[in-house]
Amino acid sequence: MAKTLLITGASGFLGRTLVKEILSQSDDTLHLLVRSGDTETVLTNDLGDLVSSRVHFVRGDITESNCGVPREIQTQLKSRIDELWHLAASTTFDDNRAEEIRRVNVGGTQNVISLARHFDKLCRFYYMSTAYVCGKRTDVIDEDDIDDSQGFKNVYEKTKWESEGIVRASGLPFTIIRPSILIGDSRSGDSMGEARMMYGYLLALYHAARHAIGGATDFPRYWHRAETGRRANVNARLYGAGEVTKNMVTVDDVVRVCMAIRASGGLAEGQTFNVVNSRNLPIAYIVDSMQRALRLTGYYYDASLPPTGLLTDNKVERAAYRCTRPFFPYARYTEPSWVCNHRPISNIPRVAMTEELFDFLMRRFVEDTLVSKPR
Ligand SMILES: NC(=O)c1ccc[n+]([C@@H]2O[C@H](COP(=O)([O-])OP(=O)(O)OC[C@H]3O[C@@H](n4cnc5c(N)ncnc54)[C@H](OP(=O)(O)O)[C@@H]3O)[C@@H](O)[C@H]2O)c1
Prior knowledge:
This protein is an alpha/beta fold.
């Protein structure tokens, strides 16, 4: 039977893919909470033919009481909403923005929960958490276990961990979903305009290397020439240890898991799902793949680089050190072993993160964003 959903964070990387999948796989009606008319326009264009009488925009901001949703809209939604998907978050790793991150992630989740309490027939509150609520732990991470004894790598992780606690204590019928690092679509390679996480790291390497390749406007020319010709050797060390591994999940894989959790109905109530990949990749491989996609050579990890500052005459190395700083904790802590046991998703086909798939995603990103549209 068709349901009515309220979704926060629908304009985000994961939200856009989730909304498209729900609209194309069901007759459900979606109310999408958006902060501004601009976001509404972008989302409308992105959804294209999928926009119909089943899509409604609700203007609001999760940092405001009841998410700033006008009282008359709250009244309209009161008897309609069956499911709430809370994806909106501040996903920056910049601890200088701690207050804002806390306001959005912790205060925002409290406000979304308060709004959810108005809904008479809410049967599920889905909270999009992160596998990195495990913080600095590198041991076995259970699905219900959120021990914080080893601390967190940044404010983002800590606030997501706190939000999980708030959701669990809310008394709402919750399901918590914890993806690891999101990356583009495994089939098309589309990064959907995303420029953070792995793409952010690749862009940092690209920006740092611009001295060596003659500036942004010359990059497409350099890149085409370098297919068969000489590749610039930046000879630059990077902060981190090459054997540290990272876990990545493609956005289509996560959405497929979300749909399976949804389809499992009552089975998933009160459960938490670690949505991680069966394969990790070492960061030495990740950087090699990125520089192959950029057609550069000479970036390598040096575990002896200090985290507090670097004196060097090498301009590329200096810039790379500065640009990759938000990622430093992730280049030091290897991944834990996440347990993924819960029934509803243990049988569905998953996308394995192979070296070939990662190479494909990096190459597509460079072709789409740096070669066709120089930054
Ligand atoms: N990206 C990852 O690698 C990753 C991994 C694991 C878990 N997650 C979790 O998955 C969820 C989605 O991540 P994402 O990468 O898709 O996020 P994203 O691209 O950064 O998008 C964030 C979304 O939250 C909305 N938002 C932010 N502040 C808001 C506010 N005050 N009021 C209303 N909406 C607000 C944004 O709206 P605007 O368009 O108006 O900015 C946007 O739709 C998050 O909860 C994140 O913690 C992400």
